[in-house]
């Protein structure tokens, strides 16, 4: 199956996810736009502004080949992203909610066209470091990572205003499937005999089962087996929140059922599918 697993083509899902987001945003009151979110220091308006930044950044970079903001001397990628994201969010505080919605609606189809033009198995414009740090990512994984980003930010807004939604399997299942691609990276550093398999089972209508096998000196995505050496089971809400640090590792472990090799199950419950 390879390091990253089989190809996931999420490109048809962007319009539906965006439609759900825009419908939500249009229905928010001024008080809703000011509600705090799980992102420290950011309210609903800030997260919507950050999504707008993502649209602009990917159109500028992937379509127009614009290099964007430069790294400061000695700046790591997480620090760089925190800085430039924060700078843009600060600027968007001058933009009305109505205009943010209009810009998202206008730019969304343009971003869809960028994705549609890409060869899925060509090299990614941006590598997905949480899936592997030593192997170049394919374009399909880069695009899928962006889909998960938009979906998660929509969920953060929904949590803040207490309006659940966009969790139907056709929108949510691909997010969980993409996050599971972080499984080999979460297990790195835990060498095991050839053929050792660790399995993650996510319960719920959008859930599934994913395996990682130690093969040829590294962990790789693999099909689940009847009797893995390690297994962790958790529900779908716990999984996506763990993967994006919407809950702590300790909270995720409290909500999970591990069995087998304790070092592997502990590593699996540190799974992270964002840059941090």
CATH superfamily of the largest domain: dinb family like domain
Order of helices and strands: HHHHHHHHEEEEHHEH
The overall strand count is 5
Q: Provide the gyration radius in Å.
A: 19 Å
Broad structural category? alpha+beta
Unreliable runs: none
The average pLDDT is: 95
DSSP summary: helix tally: 11
Oligomer: single chain
Tell me the β content. 5-15%
Task: Give a written overview of the molecule.
One of its GO terms (molecular function) is metal ion binding. This is Mycothiol-dependent maleylpyruvate isomerase metal-binding domain-containing protein. It comes from Sinosporangium siamense. By secondary structure, the protein is α+β, with helices and mostly antiparallel strands. The protein folds into 2 domains: 11-123 and 136-162, dinb family like domain (Four Helix Bundle (Hemerythrin (Met), subunit A)), CATH 1.20.120; 181-268, 2-Layer Sandwich (Nonspecific Lipid-transfer Protein, Chain A). 48% of the residues lie in helices and 11% in strands. Strands 3-2-1-4-5 form a 5-stranded mixed sheet. Helix 1 packs antiparallel against helix 5, helix 3 runs parallel beside helix 5 and helix 3 packs antiparallel against helix 6 (139-161). The mean pLDDT is 95.
In a few lines, what is going on in this structure?
It holds the Pfam family MDMPI_N. With 276 residues, the chain is α+β, with helices and mostly antiparallel strands.
Features:
alpha+beta; 11% strand; 5-stranded mixed β-sheet; Four Helix Bundle (Hemerythrin (Met), subunit A); 276 residues; Nonspecific Lipid-transfer Protein, Chain A; 2 domains; 11 helices
């Amino acid at each position: 199956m390879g390091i990253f697993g089989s190809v996931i083509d999420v490109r048809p899902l962007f319009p539906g996810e965006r439609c759900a987001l825009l419908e939500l945003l249009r229905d928010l009151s001024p008080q809703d736009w000011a509600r705090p979110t799980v992102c420290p220091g950011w309210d609903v308006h800030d997260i919507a502004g950050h999504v707008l930044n993502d649209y602009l950044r990917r159109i500028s970079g992937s379509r127009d080949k614009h290099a964007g903001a430069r790294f400061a001397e000695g700046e790591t990628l997480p620090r760089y992203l925190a800085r430039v994201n924060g700078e843009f969010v600060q600027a968007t505080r001058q933009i009305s909610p109505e205009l943010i919605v209009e810009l998202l609606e206008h730019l969304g189809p343009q971003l869809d066209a960028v994705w549609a033009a890409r060869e899925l198995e060509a090299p990614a414009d941006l590598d997905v470091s949480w899936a592997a740090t030593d192997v170049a990512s394919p374009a399909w994984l880069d695009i899928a990572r962006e889909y998960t980003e938009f979906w998660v930010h929509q969920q953060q807004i929904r949590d803040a205003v207490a309006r659940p939604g966009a969790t139907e399997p056709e929108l949510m299942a691909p997010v969980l499937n993409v996050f599971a691609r972080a499984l080999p990276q979460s297990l790195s550093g835990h060498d095991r005999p050839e053929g050792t398999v660790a399995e993650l089972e996510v319960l719920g209508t959008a859930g599934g089962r994913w395996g990682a096998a130690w093969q040829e000196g590294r962990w790789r995505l693999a099909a689940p087996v009847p009797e893995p050496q390690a297994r962790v089971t958790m529900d779908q809400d716990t999984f996506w929140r763990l993967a994006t640090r919407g809950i702590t590792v300790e909270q995720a472990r409290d909500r999970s059922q591990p069995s087998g090799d304790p070092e592997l199950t502990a590593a699996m419950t540190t799974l992270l599918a964002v840059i941090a």
